Amino acid sequence: AAAIARASMALDTSQEDWDDVMDVNAGGTFLCCQAFGRHMIAQRYGKIVNFSSISAYIGYPEYTSYNVSKAAVVGITQSLAVEWARHNVWVNAVAPASVRTPMTQYVWGDPELYRSAQSRLLMGRWAEPEEFVGVVLFLASPASDWITGVTLLVDGGCLVDGRWGKHLPSERDANQA
């Protein structure tokens, strides 16, 4: 679930920032899957739950590298699910939105930005990390034995509402304020 983001317009994104985001978000996910996958394939059973983002499905402004890296996590999840199903290894992902984490602290740590962002969320609030425990436990349990290669949107209705990402401030906006 480790991730980083670097806010910049696509034309201003440096190769270093692009590589850092891709290495941590996509590369880190792949390497962890590979390491655990070897063990799971050897024991002929396992479940992997990756973390993507709803940013994999929308063009969130000023976060092209993050969006692409999280779309890569969806691709990694699907590819490994296909490769490893014959070994009884299930690979799925969770795609959250607007979670109060250290990475999003620039928004929720600023009362004005937080109120603005929160007002645009269908459920009227940000998710807490603890709210993903049940979803991950489900995907890691026998209850999900007929589910593999799926990225489960756990976004409080953000994608169906259509407001998420349109007007939320970027980290760059927050730093310039």
Concise account of the structure shown:
This protein is mainly α and 177 residues long.
- What strand order characterises the main sheet? 1-2-3
Rg computed from alpha carbons, rounded to a whole number of angstroms: 17 Å
The low-confidence parts are none
Oligomeric composition of the shown chains = single chain
Strand content: 5-15%
Shape: globular
Cα-to-Cα separation, first versus last residue: 30 Å
Main beta sheet strand tally, sense and closure: 3 strands, parallel
Task: Name the helicity range.
Answer: 40-55%
Question: Helices and strands: which structural class?
Answer: mainly alpha
Average per-residue pLDDT, rounded, comes to 89
Number of helices: 7
Order of helices and strands: HEHEHHHEHH
Number of strands: 3
Description:
There is one protein chain. This protein is mainly α. The chain is 45% helix and 10% strand. The chain is built from 7 helices and 3 strands, in the order αβαβαααβαα. A 3-stranded parallel beta sheet has the order 1-2-3, with helices on both faces. α1 packs parallel to α2. The longest helix is centred in the N-terminal third of the chain and has 29 residues. It is globular, with a radius of gyration of 17 Å. The model has no long low-confidence stretch (mean pLDDT 89).
